Amino acid sequence: MLSCLLALGAHVALAPPTTIVSFEEPTAEWRVVDASATPVSDHVTEGEFALRVEFEQSDGYPALALGAECLALTDWTGYGAVAFDVFVEGDAELGLNVRLDTKAGGVEAMEQTEVRVRPNRATTVSMALPRELPHMYFGPPALLGDVNGALRSADLDLAAVTGIHIFLLRPETARTIYIDNVRLAPEVPMRDLVDRYGQYANAEWPGKITRDEDLTEDRSQETEWLSHNGRPASFDEYGAWADGPQLDATGWFRTAQVDGKWWLVAPNGKLFWSSGLDCVNTQNGGPIRDRQYLFSWLPEPGDALSRFGSAESAEANFYEMNLYRKAWARLWEPWLARTGERLDAWGFNTIAAWSDQTFHSAAAHPHPVDGERPHDPGRVGHYSRCLRPRVAWPRALPLPNADHPVPRRPAVHRILRGQRDRVGLLLARSTNIHGSHQLPRDVRPRSGQASYGGASPGEAWAPSPL
Predict the structure, then answer these.
(1) For residue 15, what pLDDT is reported?
(2) H or E segment at 337?
(3) Which DSSP helix (H) or strand (E) runs through 351?
């Protein structure tokens, strides 16, 4: 169990965990509510005994309370996580709640969280503790074992811990667990975590980049692989079903019913199943100002790579640095070409939302209309030419339909440029733009699918051909 240290602390010399509760002898200090607790020799991970806790069926909160009187240490300053080993009896997963109490200067504070533990297996549960880091809300997650949570409240005073509680929320049936080795793990040093290639510095793995030549070799190997792995044979030039049914070729993406089922249809009349990636772009940087201590290396001003971020900049983009190191000094055109080749080889046929607009202009893959920012303010679109805008339509504007132009309101929608037979559709996923029940019946979408992430249905507009 203890061999799994904090994930961010792998290959970093850390002090061993400190045991704070031992179940070697029965004691009244282990308080229970709607439960019983007995030291047993089953499922032991430290010493000779574990604690068998039998929670009753309850409309309340059956609990095991480990107060300050049974903690070997109540000042947890400098520790990064509290952990324990648990074995859950039965056939069903168990929601286990952990609460930490502190009291300092008469001020009480508590924080609790729930983790899900699978039955019939030895499991380490780890809870990350609050930690102050410059210009960060909180530290990294403590991944001490198999199941991980966090007790992050800034109100907790780790210098004055008064107890830790393990409890269930209104269990419908009686449940039994075995718990052992309640311990504290030290904080992970938060310096030099990221190397010069944007990777975690304190661990090794197959394929990790260690020198610039690794990147150029990777480029050559990928070029060779791509030469033998292109677009799937089942795709036509649009990524549509090449050998599938042939419908009328309208020159536009549209929807149609085939054998009683709704389909997207490519401009050439072939059935089209949209499979795409969001956020296809190189904008993968992050903030570094006042966080330079996290990085083992950053470009100095004047370095060729400083255009992507330096020790004096607000952000750094290691992805673009690595593209540059791949001898792609021009960066943009080679990246566009290689990314298109990758998407084809990986079996994707759509450039999905929030992707770089250069792909849209290049018109190499179908793509959706994105209504979040104006793209071409001087143009007025038509719903038969584009997907529903990806923002909620203002209530003050009349709702358009397929027979009327979209109002000239560039802040509301964006019209794609390019040849009309390259304008594609992607079923919208963002739940805040769905909810066709709010639309008049005569302008509701004619096709739809279940939303990926919300209660309201995700539906795409069904444009009519010109």
Answers:
(1) 66
(2) helix 332-345
(3) strand 350-351
Sheet of strand 161-167: strand arrangement = 30-33, 63-67, 161-167, 94-104, 107-117
For residue 102, give the nearest of 174, 159, 37 by alpha carbon. 159
Look at the pTM and tell me if it is higher than 0.85: no
In the numeric block, which tokens belong to residue 96? Answer: 């286990």
| Separation of CA 335 from chain center | 25
Neighbours of 264 (CB within 10 A): 23
* pLDDT at residue 370, rounded to an integer: 53
Q: Which residue positions in the chain have pLDDT lower than 50? A: 1-11, 371-466
Residue given tokens 């439960």 in the structure block = 35
DSSP 8-state assignment for residue 14: -
Q: Please, which residues have CB within 8 angstroms of residue 151's CB and are 6 or more apart in sequence?
A: 82, 98, 100, 111, 112, 113, 127, 128, 129, 130
Torsion of the alpha carbons at 40, 45, 47 and 52, rounded to the nearest 10: -20
Report the relative pairing of strands 276-277 and 350-351 from DSSP bridges: parallel
Count Cα atoms within 13 angstroms, Cβ side, for 463. 29
Q: Residue 202 has what pLDDT?
A: 84
Q: How far is the C-alpha of 37 from the C-alpha of 52, rounded, in Å?
A: 6
286-287 and 315-316 as β-strands: parallel, antiparallel, unpaired?
antiparallel
> How far is 97 from 188, CA to CA, in rounded Å?
25
Strand 271-272 and strand 261-265: the pairing is antiparallel
